[in-house]
Amino acid sequence: MSGRAQPPSERGDRHLRHDIRDAWVVVRTELRARVRQTLETPRQLISVAMLLLLAGILLPLLCSDVALSYGASLTSGSPPVGRTGLLVTAAMGAGLYLGFSTATQQLQLGTLSPLVRTAVPPRAVVFGRLTSELTQAIVFVILPVVLLLPAVVIGAWNPIPAVLLILALVPPLLSSAFAGRLLGEGLTFANRWLGVGIWTKGVVLLTTTAAAYLGLQMWLGSVLPDSSMTATEAGLQTIVPGAPLQAYASVVLEPFGAQARPLGLVVGAVLVAAVPLSLAATVRFESWLLQREPEADRDETAHADESRPVAAPFRATTSARVAWRYLLRTRRDPAMLAHLFPVFVGSLGILSTAVTDPDTVLWLAPGTAVIVGAALAGGAYCLNPLGDDRDQLPLVLTSTGSTTMLLRGRALAGLTLGMLFAWGLAVPLELADGSGTHTVALALFAPVLLLAGAGTALGMGALSPKFKRNEYLNVERAHPSLIVSIGYMFGAIPVGITGLVLFPAAVGDPSAVNLTAVSIYILVIGAISWGGYAAAVRRLDRLTLDDI
Prior knowledge:
mainly alpha, two-stranded antiparallel sheet, ABC-2 type transport system permease protein, transmembrane, membrane
């Protein structure tokens, strides 16, 4: 090269080309590693297959009629501005979720620091990581959209509306995805570097979630019309009240007869401009994070008591003492129960009912508390038995003849938490309602359901034990399998409701039919529970050091 100095624009272009090349190497490596790991791990392959089945077959089948009617309405002369605005809202919501989840759950396989700090420019690392993680996440959004597009085209008898719709949805999807990513990175940074205790963080998270849920419910109740409307019409008027996203939809559908509004042009320009701006902000912030000198994580349990004597109720057996240790660990580090956050979200319905219709609380709350207790009994410590004890497993597997003691300890610890809801909350609420029969029935039913839940959860968790640490909700540990957790939580609901019907009937009217029904119910769930426990013992007793 000549000795003349290169202009800044030329140097910038050269650096950009090098960054793109390095970023492509990161993307290619991450995606190849992800595919290879998925194909080599049966449980991950099953998880991906089920998600693809849901997103690629079941969802399009359920929505095909809606897509056909939507396509027909696009060319009817009166295009569906409201429904298109709702699609834009859905795209923004999906983008926010995808961006936030990739920032807080660490989908990348490689450990990017500290080696990559000296091997690849930070901007290239961020571009590569961002592209890789969003590609892995967004495929489950793109797949059903691609499969539903033919239905829209068939309904409209014209491919142009479908093409315009996709072009209109790309800016809100990408801008919200980058914004969600930036939000997730910011919260993750704050969570790791602020000197706030973990109990404080947990209380703030739960309180904020409950407040947001209640606020949304109260807002929906205030804007929903009292007149009889279809759920779609009510949802459209609630979520897309005419401005600004509906105005944006009017611009998109202007070629098909919609009346374009000036506000829509402004919103469209803002959404398009937000894509590079949000991307630049995300890249700059993540690059700054990547270049920070690593610091030692604060030990949030450093001030915890070093030792506590075993409480009197837990001194009877060795398994009970193990249960006490699990409960003590949870007190010191409540993040052990982070995987139960969906249970909390699912139980918020009773909280909204308490606000919107207080008279029904005493009717719904006791049964809900028992079912939540069952979810805790099995979900707290049994859905990934021994998974989060990986550091101690070499000692356990070489010094004990069986894992029975540990499994029973986990079950007892979960039962302790579950009974706090079942007897500590449900029974007093039922008694306050003035129904002695239902109170007795609930007190008898609770331990049956909780015992069955703990044994069943042990069996389900032993089917797919997870020893690899990953991050979920900013908590890095060996979380239970997602499929196992969802299956257990959703299975507890119908089983619990069935028992809530049978037991009061048998206590109130101890006829032969009612007693027989209750007996069959107890035998069935008892057999499943004992079978799950026995299967867990067999499966985990066969573990070797090579398995972990």
